[in-house]
Amino acid sequence: MLLTTIVTATTPARAGDGSLEKDEIRKVVKTHIQEIRSCYNEGLSRKPTMAGKLTVDFEIAAGGEVSSSQIQQGSTLADPKVEGCVAAAVQSWKFPAPTGGSVHVSYPFEFAPG
């Protein structure tokens, strides 16, 4: 059975040392949004009514690779497998190289079955 999902990605909450345009960050997230949906769909197969929000904190290194990725405390999704899958997916992404060093990003996602 194919599960439909709604995933909303909003603007990064903060950026640190270096700089990278928010639109560039959003573009990469949008390119990889199916990976996030796949994580959520796997969770829906176990818990069909699962819904909630999570925020991924990650660092984009000087070369554009993600050097760290973790889920902020306070996730209302409350599913460690989905949260781990999302964090791992983000860890594998490649962004344009930031100007002036690494960039710290907090990126929220909202999930609802649909």
From TrEMBL:
<dbReference type="GO" id="GO:0016020">
    <property type="term" value="C:membrane"/>
</dbReference>
<keyword id="KW-0812">Transmembrane</keyword>
<dbReference type="InterPro" id="IPR006260">
    <property type="entry name" value="TonB/TolA_C"/>
</dbReference>
<dbReference type="InterPro" id="IPR049806">
    <property type="entry name" value="MasK-like_C"/>
</dbReference>
<protein>
    <submittedName>
        <fullName>AgmX/PglI C-terminal domain-containing protein</fullName>
    </submittedName>
</protein>
<dbReference type="GO" id="GO:0055085">
    <property type="term" value="P:transmembrane transport"/>
</dbReference>
<dbReference type="InterPro" id="IPR037682">
    <property type="entry name" value="TonB_C"/>
</dbReference>
<feature type="domain" description="TonB C-terminal">
    <location>
        <begin position="47"/>
        <end position="112"/>
    </location>
</feature>
<dbReference type="Pfam" id="PF03544">
    <property type="entry name" value="TonB_C"/>
</dbReference>
<keyword id="KW-0472">Membrane</keyword>
<keyword id="KW-1133">Transmembrane helix</keyword>
